[in-house]
C-alpha cells in the first residue's frame, strides 16, 4: 500500500511517541518526531508534513503557543494540527481550537480509532 502521508508528532514523552509511531506506521503513515517545540520549528523550516499531532504540555513551549506560531506561517495555514492532550477540563478543547488546532484527541489515546481520527483531517488537507 502506498504511503498515506507524513505526520509530525510533537511530543516530549518517548513512550507516547513510540506508541503513536507503531499504530500509524502499521497503517502506512510516515511518522516524524520532535520531542521539543524548538526541534519541531527546526523540522518545519525544511519540511511540510501532511498533518501535525501536537502535545499541549511540553517543557520548552506549550502546544497552544507552538500551534499559534506554526499557523501564523502562510505555508502551514492549511496544515491540520491536532491537539493530543490529557487536559480534559472544561474549556481545554475550546482553548486548543482557539490556538489554531483543527481538532482534539484526548489522552490516553484509543489506538483502535486513532487512524480514523487522523484520516478525517488529512482528507481535508490539500497538502495531504
Report on this structure.
This protein has 128 residues and is of the alpha/beta class. It has one domain: Response regulator (Rossmann fold). A five-stranded parallel beta sheet has the order 2-1-3-4-5, sandwiched between helices. The two termini are 16 Å apart. The model has no long low-confidence stretch (mean pLDDT 91).
The beta-strand count equals 5
Helix content: 25-40%
Cα(first) to Cα(last) distance is 16 Å
* Major sheet characteristics: 5 strands, parallel
Oligomeric state of shown chains = single chain
CATH homology superfamily name: Response regulator
Widest beta sheet: strand line-up? 2-1-3-4-5
What's the mean pLDDT score? 91
Structural class: alpha/beta
- CATH topology value: Rossmann fold
Specify Rg, calculated over alpha carbons. 13 Å
Give the overall form: globular
Key features of this structure:
128 residues; five-stranded parallel sheet; Rossmann fold; 5 helices; 5 strands; alpha/beta
Topology, pairings included?
Elements: E1 6-10, H1 14-26, E2 30-34, H2 37-44, E3 51-55, H3 63-71, E4 81-85, H4 92-98, E5 103-106, H5 114-122
Parallel strand pairs: 1-2, 1-3, 3-4, 4-5
Amino acid at each position: 500500500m502506498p504511503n498515506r502521508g507524513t505526520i509530525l508528532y510533537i511530543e516530549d514523552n518517548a513512550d507516547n511517541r513510540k506508541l503513536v509511531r507503531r499504530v500509524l506506521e502499521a497503517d502506512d503513515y510516515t511518522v516524524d518526531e520532535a520531542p521539543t517545540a524548538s526541534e519541531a520549528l527546526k523540522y518545519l523550516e525544511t519540511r511540510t508534513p501532511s498533518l501535525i499531532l501536537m502535545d499541549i504540555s511540553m517543557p520548552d513551549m506549550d502546544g497552544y503557543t507552538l500551534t499559534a506560531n506554526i499557523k501564523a506561517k502562510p505555508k502551514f495555514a492549511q496544515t491540520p494540527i491536532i491537539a493530543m492532550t490529557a487536559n480534559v477540563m472544561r474549556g481545554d478543547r475550546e482553548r486548543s481550537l482557539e490556538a489554531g488546532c483543527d481538532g482534539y484527541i484526548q489522552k490516553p489515546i484509543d489506538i483502535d480509532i486513532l487512524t480514523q481520527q487522523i484520516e478525517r483531517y488529512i482528507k481535508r488537507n490539500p497538502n495531504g
